[in-house]
Please model this.
Amino acid sequence: MSGWAKGRLCAFDTETDCAEPEDARIITATVLFLGGGQDRVDRQWLLRPERPIPAEATAVHGITTEHAQEHGMDRAEAITQIAAEIEGAFVHGVPVVVFNAAFDFTVLDRECRRVGATVPDPASALVIDPHVIDKAVDRYRRGKRTLGATCEQYGIDLGEAHDATADALGAARLAYMLATRFPAEVGERSLAELQAFQVEWRARQSASLQEYFAKQGKDEVVDGSWPLRVFSGVVA
Model:
């Protein structure tokens, strides 16, 4: 196989204290570089919380407020470091793999704004989102589209789900499998082409979900922006 999947990739994942990206605070994060004939490089962060971690969030990722307070690092310092790693990948043209990118990049964007760190701009970079791609190339498959379920579909052992490092690595492996299994749609496209297609695919997927909600009588609004939600000008 030729194409971008044989080159260097960066994978990024966060675990947070809630599921709303405008309000979520990062608890742990991982940025790892792998592939391209070079050694794998991992960077991991545990952040000191600025507010109690809800029990439901701890039930997902296993990190308590007490543990993060004792072992976590300064939030501003950690967020600045995470952003710098992502920006470095962008600057050097290394594609960043993020499963459900609009969540993690929005969380990072808002966290950077809270602490005054430089905000990486994924809209002008190279992003690979296996969540968006899988839903586009295998549109009618039934079942869940979570990271765990999608990894299982492609024969990938995710290991410890909701661990930022395991999830980042799982997303990178998914990107490789999608490029291999769908060469015309994914693997053989240039990264610029794939970026443009993902914007279009995400918009269509969001419109379809919005239509479904309308038919169900729900008034939920689906944000179709990708790979980052539009900033309202107010940080929660």
The chain has a mean pLDDT of 96. The domain at 4-215 is CATH 3.30.420.10 (Nucleotidyltransferase; domain 5).
